[in-house]
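<context>
A single protein, sequence plus fold
<entry> Chain with its tokenised backbone below
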Amino acid sequence: MNSEEKHFINQRKMQKTITRDTIVKQRRAVARILESKFGMNFRTKKITVGNQTFVIDLMSEDGSIAAKIVNPSGITSQGTISSTKFQSILSSTLVLKSLDCKRRLVVFTNPHMYEEFAWSIRIAPEPISSTMKKIEMMLIPLLDVHECNDFFNGSKKRIFRNRSYMEKDLNDKQDDLK
């Protein structure tokens, strides 16, 4: 293996470490906010559903609240949510629905990702849009708003679309699904 190949392998290893560190920081930040909001501690927890094991990003100590944290990766160059990311979030909601919890949260840390997913769900046909039934979407922005930089790594983010009317429509839609 030549020095150039070693360099690229080391770069990939470093990127994985940065990503892992960012996820840990993100979970801690969201956990603190949820702890403040709900008055209980939140921890990462492994659960078994059927014969599969899943990691729940954050679960309250009493097991009444489970949360999936959606990171901001998965936005295409056109500014829309990628189909892979969309499917991943839907898959996570199915796992959340299988839990015996009072509240199930999907927490977005990026306003653009939140908006894109909410928009995609809103215009999706019934079998897909009903996936979010009994799931609460929450936005906890971990973003430097003035610089449009990601809170942890300073990467530039595309300014999200102006859909000011969507917040009310989304809340109405979620009320209909409950």
In short: Helices lie at 3-38, 83-97, 111-123, 126-129, 166-177. Confidence is low (pLDDT under 50) at residues 144-169.
